[in-house]
């Protein structure tokens, strides 16, 4: 079997992906399918870290827009990511994948506190590490947390699993003539405000030459394909701005 292209990856999962058709919370069939995908990647010998969002339970930005103090709203969003991380851990360990949850906010009865060297040891021992509670600071998204943790773990790439098959020049839901990029530079993502990740996350990746693969989590086996280096989405990286495919 062909070897994976990437030895250590950071998988970024949105909280909204966990809700499935329910519109809120965690859909058991969705998290089971997600765990199976992660198990298959782990079976390849890939060292896998995960950052998961909390938008299926609580979105700090949305609450802030409705008048809640932004810092308080963001902390509540961080707690939502912990709920999702524990649910994913349970699903993974039910499939025989040894998993650790590390959180940026201390809650020792539930999970480990984030310690960079300890997280690296877990990865080296073949454990899947789920990073929860974002960066532990308000005003920073889980996308930024994914960029930060990926760099701290010396990941080869960030795999951002979404509901679309890549990055488009405009919203493909609203515009039927939207064109997908096969590859695009960090600078063009920022200049064109392509909404891949927030600008802080993209800037961090750009400053450290960390590539990002944006792909559709839906089709079965797509995470494995992404790890193998198949062109199933859009690659963010490189010095030259690319034109749409």
Task: Explain what this protein looks like in three dimensions.
- The protein is an alpha/beta fold and 245 residues long.
- It has one domain (8-236): Carbamate kinase (3-Layer(aba) Sandwich), CATH 3.40.1160.
- The protein contains nine helices and nine strands.
- It has helices at residues 16-19, 28-43, 60-65, 70-93, 116-124, 142-152, 186-191, 199-207, 222-228, and strands at 8-13, 47-52, 99-103, 112-113, 128-132, 157-162, 183-184, 212-216, 234-236.
- Strands 4-3-5-2-1-6-8-9-7 form a nine-stranded mixed beta sheet, with helices on both faces.
- It is globular and about 50 Å long.
- 42% of the residues are buried.
- Mean pLDDT is 91; it is low at 239-245.
Number of domains: 1
Could you tell me the number of beta strands? 9
- CATH class value: Alpha Beta
**Low-confidence blocks of residues:** 239-245
Tell me briefly what this model is.
The chain has 245 residues and is an alpha/beta fold.
Name the descriptors.
9 helices, nine-stranded mixed β-sheet, 38% helix, globular, 245 residues, 9 strands, alpha/beta, Carbamate kinase
Write the layout of secondary structure elements.
Elements: E1 8-13, H1 16-19, H2 28-43, E2 47-52, H3 60-65, H4 70-93, E3 99-103, E4 112-113, H5 116-124, E5 128-132, H6 142-152, E6 157-162, E7 183-184, H7 186-191, H8 199-207, E8 212-216, H9 222-228, E9 234-236
Helix pairs in contact: 2-4, 2-9, 6-8
């Amino acid at each position: 079997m062909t070897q994976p292209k990437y030895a250590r990856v950071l998988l970024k999962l949105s909280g909204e992906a966990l809700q499935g058709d329910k519109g809120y919370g965690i859909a058991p069939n969705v998290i089971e399918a997600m765990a199976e995908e992660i198990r298959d990647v782990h079976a390849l010998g890939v060292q896998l870290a995960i950052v998961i969002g909390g938008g299926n339970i609580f979105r700090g930005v949305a609450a802030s827009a409705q008048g809640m103090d932004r810092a308080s709203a963001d902390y509540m969003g961080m707690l939502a990511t912990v709920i999702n991380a524990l649910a994913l851990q349970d699903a993974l360990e039910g499939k025989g994948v040894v998993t650790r949850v590390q959180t940026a906010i201390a809650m020792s009865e539930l999970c480990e506190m984030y310690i960079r060297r300890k997280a690296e040891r877990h990865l080296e021992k073949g454990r899947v590490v789920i990073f929860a509670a974002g960066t532990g600071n308000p005003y920073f998204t889980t996308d930024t947390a994914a960029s930060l943790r990926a760099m701290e773990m010396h990941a080869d790439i960030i795999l951002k699993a979404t509901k679309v098959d890549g990055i488009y020049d405009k919203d493909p839901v609203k515009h039927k003539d939207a064109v997908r990029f096969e590859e695009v530079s960090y600078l063009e993502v920022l200049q064109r405000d392509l909404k891949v990740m927030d600008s802080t996350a993209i800037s961090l990746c750009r400053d450290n030459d960390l590539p990002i693969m944006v792909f559709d989590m839906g089709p079965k086996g797509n995470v494995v394909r992404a790890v193998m280096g198949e062109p199933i989405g859009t690659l963010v990286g490189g010095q030259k701005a690319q034109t749409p495919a």
